[in-house]
Design goal:
10 helices, mainly alpha, 2 domains, four-stranded mixed β-sheet, 5% strand, 65% helix, 326 residues
Amino acid sequence: MVKPLNRQQVYEHERAAQNAWAKRDLQTDKLLEATYQESIRRMQDQIDRFYIKYASNKGLTRAEANRRIKGFDVQAWAEKAAEAVKNKDFSPYTNEWLKTYNTKMYISRIELMKAELELELQNLYSAENKIMDKHLVNEALAEYRRQAGILGSSAKGSSQRIRQIVDADFYGNNFSERIWGRTGYYMETRKALFGSLNRMYTDMMGYKQERSRLMKQFNVSYSEAMRLLRTETARVRADAEMASYKDNGATHYIYCAEPGACINCAALDGMAIPVEEAEKGLTMFPMHPNCRCSSYGHIEMEYKDGRSTLDEFKRWEVNFLETNEN
């Protein structure tokens, strides 16, 4: 049986944990940024090569360009697509899409461009999904085990629960759906990408301006991906904590606001909240996007004289928010 930490030790432990979170999150951020930048560079090169080759040649009509594309370019793309299906772990949607395009005998100019860039886009989001999923699993497992240590309990069997935590819904959608779903980041980026390609196709002279606009969209997509990852990371940490509390008999958790916390998080700092009252955005982090607050579990015990081990903490009350607002 591991000896539980005292209040000051736990507080210092929480601050150290929050700092460690920030460092690990930063490492993942850098890895994702490098993945995005490399993919965007390749897509920029593809767009430039395509238009230099087929739009800059004087006297080359669209019909002639389309005719030429039906030859070598289609074969080259088909080989690349086949290789991608063989070696990459794409989503079922992607594999089906690649198979469909790989069997086409002819392809128009704009379709070829879309096929080339969708393949690259699928590579990007597949890599992004793997990086994010690994990060979420590692963080959930680490937090579950950390909380078990604070409570002086065992984290045996924790690995079996982590996958359920990572795949759980958050405000109606799970993490995979937020990336790959109909309204997820992949589909939104794809929509913007193909919209730009259609505008480029009808106005080849203005493609540089459209290309610049498209790259800005990718920057927005990257920022949204980072925001999603940070919020989902906070969510799985919170869920891992709650799972550990329930598994180890904790009656309350102590909210620990991050340094420089917002007014809502700061109001909860040091407060003892019953485990059954936990609600993200109200009594449990994440209170907002990019929230890095934390908590630690507590098993309330009463002394013979009527005192409680929770007497040194502020206590959560149902009317706390109303009182705090007033």
